[in-house]
Amino acid sequence: MAVTRYDAEALLRRLPHRHPFVFLDRVEVEEPGRSGRGYSLISIANPVFAGHFPGRPIFPGVLLIEAAAQSAGVIATAADDDGTGIALLATVRKFAFRKPVLPGDLVVLTCELKASVGGFREFTCTVDVAQETRAEGVVAVAIETSDARM
Amino acid sequence: MSEAVSNAQERYDLVRRITVTLVEGLDLPDDPEVIDPDQPLFGRGLELDSLDTLEIVSLIDEEYDIALDDTPDAFGSISKIVDQILAKRD
Predict the structure, then answer these.
(1) In chain B, what are the domains?
(2) What is the Cα–Cα distance from A32 to A11, expressed in whole angstroms?
(3) pLDDT single digits (tens) A77-124
(4) What SS3 state is found at A140?
(5) Which residues of A sit within 8 Å Cβ distance of B?
(6) Phi and psi (nearest 5°) for A38?
(7) Confidence (pLDDT) at A26
(8) Residue A106: in which H helix or E strand, if any?
(9) Interface ipTM
(10) Is A52 in the active site?
(11) Considering only CB atoms, which chain A residues are within 8 Å of B57?
């Protein structure tokens, strides 16, 4: 199956978010609308580490959820023919954080469609580092079309 | 037991199980015993919204491995959800 790759520049055409709230460096969509992987390089230069936590940098779990939602959003809207739809986080369920994500980690966010109703898409997401699961849970995104934004 | 009675019992049991699944899964304040299966799920019924529909699809898929149809009428009431499950089981 051909994988569609969205690099950092292409992601900005798919996400409404901008610096410092883009938490992805790349997304590979395996099946548009259904499955793919987001990649996030965790740098000690990220200002969040100044406060989370001083002397003990741990990437915040809530930002891993946001990264998972952004991955799910890119995958969900990849099925959008005209490419103008954007996805916004709608729900978070059953997210659990098994081990911390640290500076230097390459985070792989694997998302698969779980349910689809109307403009909502729900994905199961697994957050791995070096093939070890650090967090997992379910996020739903709401697809907003260009018509709805007018 | 006749087939008709057996089918009615199966439906009655399924209605009760689905009601408990929805009350627990959606964290509803209602007592499952007092929910009428024909009561509307949305609006003035159980006052669910479109996001709850997504949760209902997930809950039914998790518990019964059945993908409910994404049509406006499909989630009108617990009875309609049970109708779909029974039809898709056959």
Answers:
(1) 3-89 (1.10.1200.10)
(2) 14
(3) 998 767 678 999 999 998 999 999 999 999 999 999 999 988 899 999
(4) strand
(5) 90-91, 93, 114-118, 120, 122, 138, 140
(6) -105, 150
(7) 97
(8) strand A106-117
(9) 0.70
(10) yes
(11) 115-117, 122
